[in-house]
Automatic annotation (TrEMBL), chain A:
<dbReference type="InterPro" id="IPR035906">
    <property type="entry name" value="MetI-like_sf"/>
</dbReference>
<feature type="transmembrane region" description="Helical">
    <location>
        <begin position="97"/>
        <end position="123"/>
    </location>
</feature>
<feature type="transmembrane region" description="Helical">
    <location>
        <begin position="193"/>
        <end position="212"/>
    </location>
</feature>
<keyword id="KW-0472">Membrane</keyword>
<comment type="similarity">
    <text>Belongs to the binding-protein-dependent transport system permease family.</text>
</comment>
<feature type="transmembrane region" description="Helical">
    <location>
        <begin position="289"/>
        <end position="309"/>
    </location>
</feature>
<dbReference type="GO" id="GO:0005886">
    <property type="term" value="C:plasma membrane"/>
</dbReference>
<feature type="transmembrane region" description="Helical">
    <location>
        <begin position="144"/>
        <end position="173"/>
    </location>
</feature>
<feature type="transmembrane region" description="Helical">
    <location>
        <begin position="232"/>
        <end position="249"/>
    </location>
</feature>
TrEMBL record, chain B:
<feature type="transmembrane region" description="Helical">
    <location>
        <begin position="255"/>
        <end position="274"/>
    </location>
</feature>
<dbReference type="GO" id="GO:0055085">
    <property type="term" value="P:transmembrane transport"/>
</dbReference>
<dbReference type="GO" id="GO:0005886">
    <property type="term" value="C:plasma membrane"/>
</dbReference>
<keyword id="KW-1003">Cell membrane</keyword>
<dbReference type="InterPro" id="IPR000515">
    <property type="entry name" value="MetI-like"/>
</dbReference>
<comment type="similarity">
    <text>Belongs to the binding-protein-dependent transport system permease family.</text>
</comment>
<dbReference type="InterPro" id="IPR035906">
    <property type="entry name" value="MetI-like_sf"/>
</dbReference>
<dbReference type="Pfam" id="PF00528">
    <property type="entry name" value="BPD_transp_1"/>
</dbReference>
<keyword id="KW-0472">Membrane</keyword>
Amino acid sequence: MTQGQTPTVGQLKQIIRKRLRSGRLVAGLLHNMRKYWPLYAMALPGIAFLVIFKYVPLLGSVIALQDYSVFRGLQDSPWVGFKHFETLFRYPDFQRVLVNTLLLGALKTILAFPIPVMLALMINEVRHALVKKGIQTALYIPHFLSWVIVGGIVFDVFAISGLFNIVIGWFGYDPVLVMQDSRFFRAVYVITGIWRDAGWGTIVYMAAISAIDPQLYESAMMDGASKWKQMLYVTLPLLMPTILILFLLDIGNFMELGFDHVFNLLTPMTYSVGDILDTYVFRTGIQQAQYSFATAVGLFQSVIGFILVHTFNRMSRKISDGGLW
Amino acid sequence: MVFESRGEKVFRFAILIVLGLLSVIALLPLLSVISVSFSSGWVVDLNQVTIWPKAFTFDSWQYMIDRPDLWRSFFLTLITTLIGTLLALLVTAMLAYPLAKKEFMIGGILMVGVVITMVFKAPIVPYFLTVRSIGLYDNPLVLIVPHILNPFNLIIMRTFFKQFPKELEEAAFMEGSGYFRLLFSFVLPLSKAVLATLALFYGVVLWNQFQHPLFFITDTDWYPLQIKIRQFITDPNEMPFLASRQEVNYNERTLRSATVVFAIIPVILVYPFLQKYFVKGAMIGSVKG
């Protein structure tokens, strides 16, 4: 129905019906609230949290279209359209940071992903319960250390008189300042990620393996399959759906490199390769107070992240009904 | 008894060797830091210390433990972690419970609202501005309040509540209890497993948090442990003047190592108690990807 036209009788009827239905909805809601008020009261703190910490910042993203100043506030800051997005793409800094983010994400996804699968397959072959538990404990512990601590450990191990340089010294190599050398940053990022989280990542696979019907192994053994063959032709194929789902979810999250992880490994000497979108937003937005510009960067990242997660989650849901939403 | 061929034995032995090596590699960096923290500075400088302390000394530890600001940060983090975990469980349960109830009319819309917050992540700058505008800048409450509800944990708890038998609640209603009593005296006491798992999730996040204090706390009085440790590790001004090297047994590296180990100890101490909730937790958490 366009404005200025007189509505037909049928359209009027529809409008009235809609009004009535929404009226009934409101009445029903009020009734529901009165009858079950404790449920509403309970939910209140949680709802308030979601509004303040999730929705207000989400709506606050509009400052990407402004020249936001804290003194003028959201209402009085001038609107500038897509100015910040335009400068963004022309900025060589931004291009470098974007490339760094994509490269680190790709490396992380490709190199770190298979490790937990292999570990889980191997742990599964350990029969002695105590040995198994010991191995698992050793592999899980790093997961509970914060990235500050991991950073501290890594800087110490790679120090000029640290463990790494002592060991390569035994083989006749000169000491290397690994953490201050941009050539090694990506490797350090990936390896520390594996060191901290690969053991933890095995848990899901271990659970999937324990759900496999033991009869399958029995019949495989009857057919004369060795342990190696059983692993290859029974365990691995049955693990495949889990692996595939987690892999797709991983690709979907591949822009999420972990601010803490990268920030605690960075030195001024490794900025050229280690500066990523998250650390860049922190520097420009929080430390230098270029609020609108940094919001534009963040928004760009959020949109790409959303598209990635959405696409790959859809794919994983097609494989099984184990998707996120 | 299962028959094992020679090949199988070699296969299993090889796996054991590889896993053993990997476990050692996983622990080596920890051993190295611990050794450095208990060694004298001069042996460390001579590239002598690998995974066992040399010229054993408590001096680095003595220096660190005598610093009151480190203890202040430690207790601040301990308290905020404890209060934060309890508060988080409370708020999460109080939202998850209505969401699990059919009679809660806005439940469906609310769930959509929750999922939206998981899909669309707000950029960090408007988040920063929002949190600052509600007075959490340089306020120790910023170590607690932003962490009291996690959508993933909320969904885990709601799923758990949904599996509750209806008969139990009906019996409670007959005795005249309301929803609040029902939740706190019947449902929560029967949800210990999920509460423990979520306490682990929330507790680890609160204890290890770095980004929030980095963004929101500039007042060194309110530095939590992780920020304090980072300051020790990276800020040369934090280190004592080491001109009189002959008199002390520590150097910058041994002091830093002692600080790092100091922060690891609490984690190692609670690890055995939490271990039994790991598998369950990681299983539910695997939805997190």
